[in-house]
Design goal:
By secondary structure, this protein is of the alpha/beta class. It is built from seven helices and five strands, in the order αβαβαβαβαβαα. It is globular, with a radius of gyration of 15 Å.
Length: 171
């Protein structure tokens, strides 16, 4: 997907906006989730299946339970809470999570305005799934199961940042 007009940028321009170095096989990805960490867990499992160790995945949970679940899914590093999310958002190449991570006080109050500001101001590319319990509708999206959205996120967007590992390379 590409955009045009003032201030808009497509994937090629996004790659130049942050620290991702062309030719590098390692990309640093923050997966942000809250509550029980189910969305983040699904995302991390799929990233690790597709990119193996070519992606360094950081599990950033709004609470310790979410972080622990994402760590069990295979994240390389994990941290919980407001300061961890604020600090880490500036150190990654890509931020992935539900759209709720950009809505202050979402996730039953777990997403603080300070977290939302740090994520929004981060130079990292943001790949967001249109999932929220808040009264927000993203017009133009198609309702589909979480695994289908995660597959699209990886094949249509995340693959621009790193090369997937072929099954024969993992053996």
């Amino acid at each position: 997907m590409s955009f045009s007009g003032p201030g808009a940028s497509g994937c090629d321009q996004l790659l130049q906006c942050h620290r991702f170095k062309e030719g590098s096989h390692l990309i640093r990805i923050a997966v942000i989730d809250g509550q029980g960490g189910g969305i983040g867990t699904t995302i991390i499992k799929r990233i690790k299946e597709v990119f193996s160790e070519r992606a360094e995945v950081w599990a950033l949970g709004t609470n310790a339970i979410a972080t622990a679940q994402m760590m069990r899914a295979g994240a390389n590093r994990g941290a919980s809470g407001e300061n961890a999310i604020r600090h880490s958002s500036a150190q990654v190449d890509v931020i992935i999570g539900p759209i709720s991570v950009l809505i202050a006080n979402s996730m039953m109050g777990e997403m603080t305005p300070s977290m939302v500001q740090a994520i929004g101001e981060s130079k990292a590319a943001k790949l967001l799934l249109p999932l929220t319990q808040e009264p927000v509708v993203v017009v133009g999206t198609i309702r589909e199961p979480l695994p289908h959205m995660v597959d699209r996120l990886i094949t249509e967007h995340l693959s621009h940042y790193s090369t997937p590992v072929l099954h024969s390379e993992q053996d």
